[in-house]
């Protein structure tokens, strides 16, 4: 039997109740949100449940939403893939202004690099990460450059105008 979105939603809702919400199809990928305190267990169940089999972490990415309320300033998006049924899923969690969430490196080893990148660029702290340190920026750097409160470099270049990157100069 093919894995259906209704089956995923039912399993997640039964197991986690109101800690999972906003189930919907977004650009042909089934998506939902999970609360930060439940995200590790949600990802674990998606991986180990024999009916779900999401054994491959395709991507993990941080996002900054400076215009959102204080509890939704940051987001982490997890993309998982079930190779058996060829089904993809997107799970998102929102984080407050000082973002922290439990690492999933114990579930997916490849999350190590992805979480380090999210910390390096957005300052998202992954609790329990085995080696959370800069991966692409210089160690001496004190900021997290993908946060939208930081202006783009070289303000004289027209191809790096903040307006083209969803940033406004009034926030800086």
Short description:
20% of the residues lie in helices and 27% in strands. By secondary structure, it is of the alpha/beta class.
Mean pLDDT: 87
Which CATH first-tier class of one domain would you pick?
Alpha Beta
Rg value: 17 Å
* Strand elements, count: 7
- CATH superfamily assignment of one domain? NADH:ubiquinone oxidoreductase Nqo5 subunit
Number of helices: 3
- Which ranges are low-confidence, i.e. pLDDT below 50, for 5 or more consecutive residues? none
Largest sheet: 5 strands, mixed
Outline: globular
Going across the major beta sheet, what is the strand order? 1-2-5-4-3
- At CATH level 3, the topology of one domain is Beta Polymerase, domain 2
The CATH architecture assignment of one domain turns out to be 2-Layer Sandwich
